[in-house]
């Protein structure tokens, strides 16, 4: 069986998508800033295909100052206008506002000695959930954990974080390992979730 035949089918054959599947999707992420960036990007995905975000990710990073919460939280009307005029990003005023507000919430949590990473990971008891679905048809679009996380994020003031978006975020950041059982990445990602392998 070829490597391509042993990948999750959702990534298809697009080289960018394949690289994302093979190197990022499902890898446990614990860095608070990186988790916030991914949450913002998943919010920008709302109503769009993830490949669209992947193709614009570097442009989005440049436009949002590397997704540095300290900088984004201080964006003013001139920054909003700059972003709305940038054809390289998703020019949604509501999504731009959500990113700015999210940065402000992230900073508030940090300044109140709340670890954004630990808080998010608490919804899976601090360890990746290992699902080993037989096929992609066995992978849900939401779970009780994603519903709970979405509700908590909204209570904090985050937007574009419904249960489906949040579940995609949880999959991408390794809070849940949804690589199908015969995927070439399934066991590798499973091993990364072992606490003894955490760097």
Outline the fold blueprint.
Elements: H1 15-23, H2 32-45, H3 50-63, H4 69-72, H5 77-84, H6 93-111, H7 116-121, E1 129-130, H8 144-156, H9 163-172, E2 176-177, H10 186-192
Parallel strand pairs: 1-2
Helix pairs in contact: 2-3, 2-6, 2-9, 8-9
- Number of helical segments? 10
- If strands are numbered along the chain, what order do they take across the biggest sheet? 1-2
**Spans with pLDDT under 50 lasting ≥5 residues?**
none
What would you report as the Rg, rounded to the nearest angstrom? 17 Å
Binned, the helix content reads 40-55%
Major beta sheet, specifics?
2 strands, parallel
Order of helices and strands: HHHHHHHEHHEH
Structural class: mainly alpha
How far from one another are the termini?
33 Å
Strand content: under 5%
Which word captures the global form?
Answer: globular
Mean pLDDT: 94
The number of strands is 2
Brief summary:
This protein has 199 residues and is an all-alpha fold.
Task: Write structural notes for this entry.
This protein is mainly α and 199 residues long. It has helices spanning 15-23, 32-45, 50-63, 69-72, 77-84, 93-111, 116-121, 144-156, 163-172, 186-192, and strands at 129-130, 176-177. Strands 1-2 form a two-stranded parallel sheet. Helix 2 (32-45) crosses helix 3 (50-63) and helix 8 packs across helix 9 (163-172). The longest helix has 19 residues, at 93-111. The mean pLDDT is 94.
């Amino acid at each position: 069986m070829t490597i391509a035949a042993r990948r999750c089918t959702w990534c298809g054959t697009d080289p960018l998508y394949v690289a994302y599947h093979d190197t990022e999707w499902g890898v446990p992420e614990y860095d608070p800033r990186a988790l916030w960036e991914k949450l913002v990007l998943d919010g920008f995905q709302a109503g769009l295909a993830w490949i669209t975000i992947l193709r614009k990710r570097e442009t989005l990073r440049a436009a949002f100052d590397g997704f540095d919460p300290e900088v984004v939280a201080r964006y003013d009307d001139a920054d909003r206008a700059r972003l709305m005029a940038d054809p390289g990003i998703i020019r949604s005023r509501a999504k731009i506002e959500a990113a700015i507000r999210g940065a402000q919430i992230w900073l508030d949590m940090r300044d109140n000695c709340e670890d954004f990473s630990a808080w998010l990971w608490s919804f899976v008891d601090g360890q990746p959930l290992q699902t080993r679905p037989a096929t992609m048809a066995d992978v849900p679009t939401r779970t009780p954990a994603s519903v709970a996380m979405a509700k908590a994020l909204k209570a904090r003031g985050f937007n574009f974080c419904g249960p489906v978006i949040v579940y995609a975020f949880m999959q991408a950041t390794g809070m849940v390992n949804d690589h199908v059982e015969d995927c070439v990445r399934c066991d590798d990602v499973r091993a990364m979730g072992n606490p003894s392998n955490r760097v």
